[in-house]
User: Fold these one by one.
Assistant:
Number 1:
Amino acid sequence: MAVKKNLVTNPKWCKGCGICVAFCPKDVLAIKKEKIVIENPDNCIKCGLCELRCPDYAIWLEEEE
Amino acid sequence: MSEKRFKLLQGNEAVVEGAIAAGMRFYAGYPITPSTEIAERSALRLPQVGGKFVQMEDEIGGIAAALGASVAGLKSMTATSGPGFSLKQENIGYAAIAEIPIVIVDVQREGPSTGLPTSPSQGDLMQSKWGTHGDHPVIVISPSSVQECYSETVRAFNMAERFRVPVIFLMDEIIGHLREGCEMIPPEELTISNRRIDRKFNGTMAYAVQEGNYVPEFAPFGKGDHFNVTGLFHDLDGFPTNDNQKTDSQERRLLDKITKRRDRIQKWEEVECEDCETMIVCFGGTARAVQGAMDEAKKQDFFKIGMFRPITVWPFPEEALNKIIRQNKHLRQIIVAEHNDGQMVLEVQRIVEGRVPVIHLGKIDGTTITPEEVLKKIEEEY
Amino acid sequence: MPSKLIEKTLRVNRLPHIWCPGCGHGILMRDVAQAIDNCGLDPDKVVIVSGIGCSSRAAGYMNYNTLHTTHGRALAFATGVKMANPDLTVICITGDGDCTAIGGNHLIHACRRNIDITSIVFNNNIYGMTGGQYSPTTPHGEKGTTAPYGNIDYNFDIPKLAEAAGATFTGRCTAYHAPQAIKLIEDAIKHHGFSLIEGMSVCPTYYGRKNKKGDSVAMMNWQKDTCIDAKVASKLPPEKLEGKILIGELSRDESKEEYTDMYMKIIEKCGGNK
């Protein structure tokens, strides 16, 4: 059985640079009021590129327990 | 292996033997006259005792590598002379604020810049105290014989470990290149301070001190404490802080650990100071000429001369000097003999506060002060 | 509540870090942390040494033995650490100014000795901490606060410099190409000898603004368009490589013995190991 992964954010650490938004291949993310927002969670393909490129560790994929 | 207990050694060589006896297992440096023999003998001797030697690309690299090795748990030393001593200053300050034990040998040569590389001098006395920027603690020890090069180096390492400070071993070319018999006191007969390596911080409070103490215990890297070492002002946990109160308390503790415990650090020699008419204050190689002058004076029925010789030059043995001035009612003058244009004399004048005249006998031509010059000065000033 | 990797490898109570919004250093630091974790190293035996500058603040955030030293001297301190205890994995995080200007001498000599240290240069092409002065990697003609009329210095190619000086593993990665960067840093750590990785960062605050490079996204898009993997490049004709920057593993030499290994042999020869 494949492990289920969820996209999680920590707006407190987000500095609103927009890197994750720009490089998300499925337009899942947005910056609102200078903070990260998961706008279209259903589009997410769990590629994890946002996590790899977030300079502030404010977004990541978490494995479901 | 049966080693001879007494050996004919050069001062520079005795420093290395004393260091190894004290537990030095790392040396990094850069060749420079007149200290190079220290590097050469370290290169030869260290691997024989399982220690390590690296000739670095420059003087700064020398002290930096020695500090790195110290953080990783080895007693470390570097040696140099004037120009190199200037280059090492920034990292002496780093050792002071990060509290990393290290011994730095400076075999002084004459003049600023390249100066006279092979001639004796004591012109780095003030630099040894104030060389790096900012208020900082430092211990400076100056030997006057080959034997002291051995035994005082042991003490230098002990002080570095006990107080977690840079200790400067301030030699001069006279003592560095002097050959004398030296007793190779084996480590088991010496008092040796070692770092406690069993301390666990659990990643916090690496710079916290136990009550009544001034010096935090120091576990080397690799023992499980993921602590941070930095040259920035830091909190008790070792991480940078801009807090003014914390800055003040760290700076105070750094200074207090030396000044408030100076009685455990200061060491000096008094020769016939209790009833002399002229007391000569001197240190390092200059003491040899003063001793010669005293011997000569006795033969000639000359004035009564005493000698006060700080072995720990910083912190200066101020209380001891004061005591002599208070108690010796025959004292008419103090002559400070040193191979510079007047450095220790400033400290002596500060302490004496005009109670007796303090006169300077200096020399800055690259030759040594002779016993005759000492006697002549006494006569002139009398 | 950060990700498992961050929780495991960084000092979470020190975060968020001091770097500006969009600074590539955060990405590169994560790459280093991921690479260390991928190598399966015992964190007690990992030492991070850094110098002074934006890059060098990384040490304080990483949950290992960390040594934040003086400007330019990280590799000299690291040499002492590694010599004192060769069982430690020593990783240097330094910057373009720290490593190749004030620390340039230590860099070339650490390369020459082939001591087993992994050095990662977070290259943001500028002195960030002091506010945007040109560095040895600011491209010729570009601007800095101390090059208001354009930089007339020619810039270093850091991996080439390191290779020429004797580094036995060199490579380059970017903030954009994070997966490749992690693999490259992993390989560099595993390499037994001196390895140097140039990590191309992005500095939108100083270098970017001063030179009208746009924001971090624009600068990372430039990395995406300009950089080409060295293996791919080796199969392409020269005209296709014009203006391109090679990334990935750039050189490797397994023929040279490592420095501390050689020194341990000296100790053995002298009987110092008994």
Note: Residues 4-270 of chain C form a domain with the Rossmann fold fold (CATH 3.40.50.970).
Number 2:
Amino acid sequence: MKIIANADYVKRKKKSRLSQVFMCAPLTVWVVALILLPLLYLLFMSFMTKGPMGTVKYIFSVESYIRILEPEYFNVVKKSVFIAAISTLACVLVGYPMAYFIASKKKISGTLMLMMMLPFWTCALVTIYSFVIMFSNSGLVNTFLMKLGIIHEPISLLYNNFSVAVGMVYELLPFAVMPMYSSIEKMDKSLIEASKDLGAGPVRTFLQVTLPLTKPGIFAAVILTFIPCIGYYMITDMLGGGTTMLIGNVIYNQFTSARDWPFGAALSCILAAVILILMYVYTKFGGDLDDLGA
Amino acid sequence: MSDVNEKVSDEVIVSLLNVEKWYGSNNVVKNMSMKIKRGEFLTLLGPSGCGKTTTLRMISGFEEPSAGVIKIENESVEMKEPYQRDVNTVFQSYALFPNMTVFDNIAYGLKVKKVPKDEIKTRVEEMLELVQLKGFEKRRIDQMSGGQKQRVAIARALINAPKVLLLDEPLGALDLKLRKQMQLELKRLQKKLNITFVYVTHDQEEALTMSDRIAVMNGGIIEQLDSPKNIYEHPKTKFVATFIGESNIFEAAVNEVKEDCAVVGMECGRGSILPDDVSLGDNIYVSVRPEDMRFDTESVEGFNIKAVVKEFIYIGNITKMVATLSNGDEIKFTRLHTGKLPQVGDVINVYWSLKDGIPIPTETAAELQALKNVKIG
């Protein structure tokens, strides 16, 4: 009796395993064909040699990686990291109070989140263009200030590092607010009451209880804004106006106008490596990859 | 049932005067006045939604009363923030800080007050010993069991030597056995430290076990504030009689008041009670505990209540008997060990000792008050 039951169990287990394989198949094909293979190809390409007229010679070389260390490019990498770091910091500083506010307004938090997500769902190209219209030399802000007589000639609000950073924050704020919102919302509010009950004022309560307990959300927000920041080339292109070159723009140029695929691939691999290291650090600090929506 | 704590003084430590709480148009605490004495174990007992937790939260400062005065040691505190009041709370969900060790949790209040480190250390150790958690200092909160977390929460509150300790259903999440053990321990702690405890629960047995006094709450008002013995043996309202233990309630009219007894007429027949507290023509409820219900095959002087035995229910230490009255109502008996048991379907004569038939006014002052408030709202 027991043996029969056991055999039955094995059969059922086999069957369920088979169905698991079938269910996973589309995802597996997707990941392998569209993510894993292209990345491997990129890695392979980064170790090749540039040929004349944008061709690629299939000869092994590390020349592309050495070229990254040239000051011209290395400065771009440094600047990219710097602007991404500044933008990330701004996102967290602006996003945390926002997330806290949304989480504390239980009844309307859904609506508030929706309002925050709307620009995020709008095509980034459109939102960035609206930025240009607002802040260009003949844009709304300058015209308004000149009409009021506060300024006499347009001040250049666009095409500098600052405008790039502001554009990044504008585009990436939802990525920062979402994980912080979810960790603030998840926090047991009676902990705040407990802290106050034990004599701690609002500042101390925030620093000793709220902040440490929402740290995972802040970590996730940092990762989720820093990674796109470092790779975004469209914002730099449109708000930096060619004066600000970041790593994303250099990569874009290598694959398009410069037609140096091995060098572009090498830069991409470096970027991917930076991101992987960041993810590793994140998990080491106790972060959960699920919180990133990954 | 606990005996009365001798350490309770007559000095009032917390007083509520005409306190009201409204959430929008919902009146959860109605014109409540209450005096809590120093060193007593007072329980707010009632069904969920009766306003007991709201009352507690108004004392701790997490809710602001809509009207009325709350005084702690003769000082009005309505406008004070929770962190400015000398009271501490043990929360229902414990609310221990998961980012801190057991030691840091207990030391939190002292650190806030900037007590010197050495003193914090000795006092935390004392506390851990008091709640029997010595050696757990370095544990993380998620490594503690429910009962241990409970002890940490109590220690964290008590270390601040509060004037009043407020406990919001602190044993609700524990299993029955642990709960009984913690009940006794809490009572022991309270007596030992002589701190005033205000305890919120919906568990009547818990309230009877631990309290010096119980405030039975219903619909935002205190129905009765009295010692456990008086609450059980002399309920003042129908609600108290039915919420605390079981009661057989008879609607009755006082037909005759004699020197040694009063005769009451009921739908199901005629019974007798003590003549004190009633006068001729009163409409009352007569409440009789199931363990005080008697029956006989012969009719008993002063009583004329007939019932048909419906069923016996075995619940371990006692057997319950249910019988149906002539008007269809069911009555319960629990003390069956005397005499011969009847059979299902037998007709019995129901009676009780005069002192066990407790008269309760049909419309108490409290109920009238509640009705008035509803009309205003």
Note: Chain A has a mean pLDDT of 84.
